[in-house]
Amino acid sequence: MDKLVIEGGYPLSGTVGIHGAKNAALPILAASLLANGEVQIRNVPNLLDIQVMIGILRRLGCNVSYEQQAVKVDASTLSTTVIPEDLMKQMRSSIFLMGPLLAKYGEVTVYQPGGCAIGERKIDLHLDGLRALGAEIIEQSEQITCRASRLTGADIHLEFPSVGATENIMMAAVLAEGRTTITNAAREPEIQDLQRFLNTMGAQVIGAGTDTITITGVKSLQSCSYGIIPDRIVAGTIMIAAAATRGNVTLTGCNPGHISSLLHVLRRAGVQINACNDIIKVSCMTRPKPVGRIVTSPYPSFPTDLQSQVMVLLSLADGFSIMKETVFESRFKHVHELNVMGADISVDANAALIRGVPRLYGATVEATDLRAGAALVIAGLAAQGRTVVEQVHHIDRGYDRLELLFQSLGAKMLRQSVVPEELDFAN
Ligand code: EPU
Fold this sequence. Notes:
Helix content: 25-40%
Strand order of the largest sheet: 23-24-1-25
Mean pLDDT: 94
Bound molecules: uridine-diphosphate-2(N-acetylglucosaminyl) butyric acid
Number of helices: 14
Largest sheet: 4 strands, mixed
């Protein structure tokens, strides 16, 4: 098992480019099954979750290549619509294959998906949406089979603006007969990216980015070439790391409009931010200020995927802040680890009270999920002394070799399978 070993206390500095968004690439890779012909998807990040999705597409019989951040998918050789259970359990996003397979081939069998242990993560809204489009759904313990000879457009209201359910319904409805309207739809930038991708293949989808999405079904979709948007959560993670280490970092190839809620919080914390076109400059020379209360909620509010990282910055602030998590019920597992590093955070139900401390101290800690792991890396970069972050495979799901990225900004950080007595950080 890999570990990240970090010698903390060095301000990050330099320029870094932002890779494509995992959470846009995953549904778009699934949607590539809808095309008649080869689809090329550019700016696809090299992450564990992406490798799992490519593995599933190959096991379904698709011809898939992945070179220089470009994935080519040819689904004309597809030989089964049963998602392999072992791969399904590795990643929640395998659920995205339901909509496209059902729409194009009339049948799909999946298993209850795995993924980060951050809450119950039900799939009822996905299944209700597909049922509304006319699918018959048979659930037998862990196995779920959906069938429909032809889907039919419907009006679907989501009780909660679920990102995944919105995407699954969009992907199913593009080949349905007639019009589908999704109300209370999720508005995340990744939904807009999916709409653009589907429309590039010839679909008729409008409204992504608002809470009402309308899809007019078409007979077929064609091959295309498409580039994924930059990863707003990776951009946010780097910005927070820059601020927590009192560094000075320039991010290129990002979209500041996708993280305006984070920019607002960082500015309240006293972090200097200069955003222009696709460039963001971040610097922080003094101890962060407390920010009062942050509540995570669906876009455009503060993202749950940056909650743990921001908590590290606030744990170093000169005063109290409160973080309320409303999206996932078990997303405070990093709190215990941060407290091991000297933070002073207490949790009451879905709210964390963060009392700022002057400094964190290096320790051996465990990444319990993807974003919790990213937060511990930031804490390690800012802390005094050496931090070892274990269970790095969680971090690899969403960051492309995070140690190389931070090394390029001057961090003293190494990946180790076994930690030797003395590490040579001079090399
Ligand atoms: N929910 C239901 N029923 C459903 C679907 C969702 O009750 O059928 C609940 C979930 O249990 C959760 C809430 O709704 O409490 C939000 O879930 P949502 O469906 O919006 O999230 P998701 O599609 O499972 C995506 C991202 C997550 C991100 C959330 C929220 C992808 C691949 N994943 O998950 O990303 O946190 O939206 O923005 O797009 C991450 O990257 O670290 C990550 C977890």
